[in-house]
Amino acid sequence: MEVNILTENLTENVSLLGKIIPSHSQIPILSSLLLEATQDSLILSSTDLEFGVRVSIPAKIEKTGGVLVPGRQFIEILSTLGREKARLYQEKDQLIISSPSGSFKFQVLPKDEFPRLFEEKGEKAGEFTQGEYQTIFEKLIFAVSQDESRPHLTGIYVVKTEESIDFVATDGYRMSLKKIRGKTLAGIDGGFIVSPRLISEGLSLKNEKKLDLHIYKGGNQAILEAGGVLLVGRLIEGQYPSYEKVIPKDSKTSITLDREELLKLLKTVSVFARENANVINCSVNLGAFHLQVATNSLGEAESQLDGKQEGDDNQIAFNIKFLMDFLRSVGGKTITIKLNSAFEPALLTTDDDPDFLHVIMPVRVQE
After folding, report:
1. For 195-298, where are the alpha helices, taking DSSP H only?
2. What would the pLDDT profile of 20-79 be if each residue is shown by its tens digit?
3. Helix, strand or coil for residue 75?
4. Class of domain 123-244
5. What is the CA radius of gyration of the chain?
6. Is the pLDDT of residue 11 over 80?
7. Where are the domains of the chain?
8. Measured between alpha carbons, how far is 85 from 64 in angstroms, rounded to an integer?
9. pTM value?
10. What is the DSSP code (8-state) at residue 287?
11. Is the distance from CB of 279 to CB of 296 less than 8 angstroms?
12. CATH for 247-360, options being 2.60.120.10, 3.10.150.10, 3.90.1150.10, 3.40.50.720
């Protein structure tokens, strides 16, 4: 193989490839990066068998072919090169990078030893603008479970309903639901659960205008394509819970608060909450949201934020981390918290997105 490239085209997505290469792998070949020179581009691929990345780079192809190079070292060299022209070419069992910064030779292996990222893309389930993608998944990704013993809760559930496509994330203690109306899930029957890693890496692709989601059920894979970048993740098996059942249908108490001001108060009170298993007591009365934490070792904190109250006075206890995660992940100027009792889930919404809601389960505290 032999190609001529601008190094800036290589370095733009090289960090994404590097994140996939395992630091220590029982399968040595996974420490390699696959380079393939096709008729019109240079393609770089990496995988850890659970997740894969393929990046297509504009290049002048002098000779097609492919090799495996030591992944982390190859990427480290690329990251040090400035904006310059470079020539990559193979001589026997070496790949040589020739540039104004110097000449670098890497031992290579045959490309056939590298595992295939996917057999086919499968059905195109939908497409998103970058803005749509961010709006949907930034409000969901924080709520997925980290408990590998319940793998079906570690991903994001996507399902077509009569009125919308629902995107859901839950860890059993909180849940985010985003509805998208006017879109379809082309060629897909029922719902599917996408790995959070695929979603998170998609969120990092800030410069792409459009993202296409493909579902290849034959290979149990979801594929996200954005410009010259292709991300390959797994579909998670399992029966997703009936998320609609946990959404409160009405409420006895509602209070609307300034989002940034509430987050600021929670950050302060969290100093005490950390000494109380992150539990914070909240109450709504006299048009204000009251926060209180009492600890045996540190002391006590109290604060309040005025808001717009509707309905009865009420009280509840939350994991403060859940409240802060929600406030950091949503937009809008105000949020509304709706309560029924200290033992029932709370419903949280924002003023900027009527098709999004968040549910947090209360913490039961001893009187």
Report:
1. 196-203, 259-273
2. 888 777 888 999 999 999 998 999 999 999 999 999 998 999 999 999 999 999 988 888
3. helix
4. alpha beta
5. 25
6. no
7. 2-113, 123-244, 247-360
8. 19
9. 0.90
10. T
11. no
12. 3.10.150.10
